[in-house]
Write a structure and sequence with these properties.
About 50% of the residues lie in helices and about 10% in strands. By secondary structure, the chain is mainly alpha-helical.
Length: about 170
């Protein structure tokens, strides 16, 4: 998978060592060629479909979420209808009356939020807001920075999870 990902993202950086590494894992030259051709064909086809603005077939939504997540590259499947956390299709949508943005809730993974949020925060902005969160209430953070208490809780959870993984 690392070889296919490298071919997809930085094909110009592939060296003989990368090919040799596949051989160490037991792949023959023919199998290495298969991996390279499959990844290149997938990239070609995805970029062509993206360039033409083609939407994916509804049948993809019937796949298991893990399979759909593995296949999803480029344009999302049925954009706006798939949970961004588990890639499930069983989301409930509502519209906020205050600003008109769509909210969703996914029953299988118990996650929710704003569909296609406009404000993305960099890691440094998240850290700065979390530092203020240590001194101020979630409501104060929401009033000052516009970050919901649910988002703060998710950021805290992510921060603790990454601290444990170090």
């Amino acid at each position: 998978m690392e070889f296919a990902e490298k071919l997809t993202l930085h094909a110009h950086t592939i060296r003989q060592e990368d090919v040799d590494n596949l051989r160490k894992h037991g792949l023959s030259d023919a199998e290495i060629l298969d991996v390279a051709l499959a990844a290149a064909a997938r990239n070609f086809w995805s970029k062509t479909l993206d360039a033409l603005g083609t939407e994916t077939d509804i049948q993809y939504l019937e796949l298991e979420p893990e399979v759909r997540k593995a296949l999803q590259k480029g344009r999302p499947f049925a954009e706006g209808e798939v949970c961004p956390f588990c890639f499930g299709t069983h989301i409930t949508k509502t519209v906020r009356t205050t600003d008109g943005r769509e909210l969703f809730f996914c029953e299988p993974c118990q996650m929710g939020g704003v569909l296609n949020p406009e404000n993305r925060y960099s890691e440094s902005e998240k850290n700065q807001i979390l530092e203020h969160h240590e001194r101020y209430s979630p409501q104060g953070i929401q009033k000052t920075f516009g970050v919901s208490p649910a988002t703060l809780a998710r950021w805290e959870k992510e921060r603790k999870k990454s601290a444990r993984g170090r």
